[in-house]
Design goal:
The structure is a homotetramer. Chain A has about 150 residues and is α+β, with helices and mostly antiparallel strands. Chain A has a single domain, classed as Hotdog Thioesterase (Thiol Ester Dehydrase, Chain A, Roll), CATH 3.10.129.10. Chain A is about 25% helix and about 35% strand. Chain A has a 6-stranded antiparallel β-sheet. Chain A is globular. Chains in contact: A-B, A-C, A-D, B-C, B-D, C-D. Strand 3 of chain A pairs antiparallel with strand 3 of chain B.
Chain lengths: ~150, ~150, ~150, ~150
C-alpha cells in the first residue's frame, strides 16, 4: 500500500465503509473524523428506530483506524477494541472523532467518541491498532510470528 | 416486546441483521449461534478480501445478545463489548458461538467466539448486556436513572 | 452500609486500600481523586523501578468506585474494567482522577486517568460498576439473579 | 534481562508479586498458573471479607504475563487488559490459569481465568502484551516510537 495515499481517499475506497454509508471527513496528525447518515436498515428495531450497536462500532473502528493511518501512513489492523454504549442512537446521523493516545513502533492506542447530530454522546471506544510489521496483509503474519 | 417471542424469529426481524446478512441459527438456554456469508461488500480491502472488523463485531454483538435474550426472554441492550482480533477473515463465512458466563438481575456477561468455515479462530469477544430495567426502549432510560 | 457515609472516610477504611497505600483525596458529584506514594514494593522490577500494572489498576479501580459511590451513596462493585497502559511509571507518586460518563439505575460507566507527579499519563481506564441491587454484599446475589 | 531465566524464578523476584503474596506455580509453552493466599489485608470490606478487585487483577496480570514470558523468553509489558468480575471472592485462596490465544512478533493476546479454592469462577480476563521491541525497559520507548 502506498504510504502517501491520502487517508480520506484510502478509507473511502473500503468496500464495507461504502456499503454501510460511512464518510470519512478528516484524518491528519493522529486525529480523524467521520459521519454516517442513519437509515432504517441500520436499526436494531424498526419501531423504536434505535441503531444497531454494530453500526456504531463500525463507524468508531473505521475512524479510529483512520486516526492511526494518518500518523503512520499505512493500513493498521485493529488488535482489540472496547465500546461502551452511553445512550441509544435514534437520530439522523452519527459522528465520530478519534485521537491517538499513544503511537508506538508496535501498537497505537486510540480513543473514539461517537455522538449524534444533537451532540448527545452515544458511545465511547478505546482500542489498540498494530502499527508495525508490514502492511495490512503481512502484518497479520507478523502478528502470528510467521 | 413479547417475552415469549422465539429468539431466532425475533433476531431475524432486526433490520441491520437482515441488511448485513447475519443468520441466527440457534438460541436457547443462554447459548446462541449465528453465521454470516461473506461478500466483497463486507471487506476492508478488495484486493486482500480481508473482512472489515465491524462485520465481525456486528455478528458477535448480535449472537451475544441472542444468548442473553434466550435466557431472560427480552431484548437486552449491550452495555459494553471488547473484541480481540486473532486472525484476518478471508474465507466464505463467519460463524459465531455465544454463551453467558453470568446472568444476573441487572447485567449478564457473555463470551462470543467467531471462526471461519475452516474453524480458524477469527476473534474472541466479551461483553456485558443489560438484563433489568424494562424492555429495549425504556431500559435505556433505566440506564440513565430516568 | 450507611448511604450517608462520607466517601473519603468509607474508602480509607478499606483494608487493601490502606495496605497498598492508596489515599482518596476527594469524591463528590460523580468525580473522585486519589493518590499513591510509590515504593520499591510496588515495582515489577527492582532495577528499573517500573511500577507493577496491578498497582496502577488497583488505584484506578478504587478511585473509579469512589466516583460512583459519591453519586449513588453506596458501595458499587466493579462489573468490568479495561486498563490501557500508556507509559511506564517510575516516579514517586501516582495520581488518579475518575469521572462518571453515565450513571444509571443498573450500572454506571466511569473513566479514570492515572498520571505521575510530573503529569505524564500512565494509564487510561474505563469500567462499569453495578449501581443497583443492594449493597456490596447482596448486589452480587442480585448480579447472579439469586 | 536474561532470556534463559526460568519464568517462575523471574516472577518470584518481582517486588510487588512478593509483597502481595502471589506465587507463580507453573509457566511453560504459553501457559501459566499462579495462586494467592488471601488475608484480611486483601479485602475491600473487613466485615464481608470480599477481596478487592485490584488483588484479583494483580494476580491475573502477573500470571498472564508469565504465560507470554514462557513462550517469548523475556519480559513483556501489558498493553491493555480487561477484567470481568463474575463472583465475589471470599475464600482462602485465588488461583489463576493463563493461556496465550495468539503470540505474534509484536503483541500476544492472553486469556486468564481466576477461581477460588472451590473452583468457583471469580473473574475472566483478556489482555494484550507487547512481545517485540526490546526488553522491559526500552520496549516502552519502542511503544512510544522513541
Amino acid at each position: 500500500m502506498d504510504a502517501d495515499t491520502d487517508p480520506v481517499e484510502f478509507f473511502d475506497r473500503i468496500p464495507f465503509v461504502d456499503d454501510l454509508g460511512i464518510e470519512l471527513t478528516d484524518a491528519s496528525g493522529g486525529r480523524a473524523e467521520g459521519r454516517l447518515e442513519l437509515a432504517e436498515r441500520h436499526t436494531s428495531n424498526e419501531r423504536t428506530g434505535v441503531v444497531h450497536g454494530g453500526v456504531t462500532y463500525s463507524l468508531a473502528d473505521t475512524v479510529g483506524g483512520a486516526a492511526v493511518y494518518s500518523t503512520v501512513g499505512r493500513s493498521t489492523p485493529t488488535v482489540d477494541m472496547r465500546i461502551d454504549y452511553l445512550a441509544p442512537a435514534t437520530g439522523e446521523e452519527l459522528r465520530a472523532e478519534a485521537e491517538t493516545l499513544r503511537v508506538g513502533a508496535g501498537v497505537a492506542t486510540v480513543d473514539v467518541t461517537v455522538v449524534d447530530e444533537s451532540g448527545t454522546r452515544i458511545a465511547e471506544c478505546r482500542g489498540v491498532y498494530k502499527t508495525g510489521g508490514g502492511d495490512g496483509e503481512n502484518v497479520w503474519q507478523g502478528n502470528r510470528g510467521e
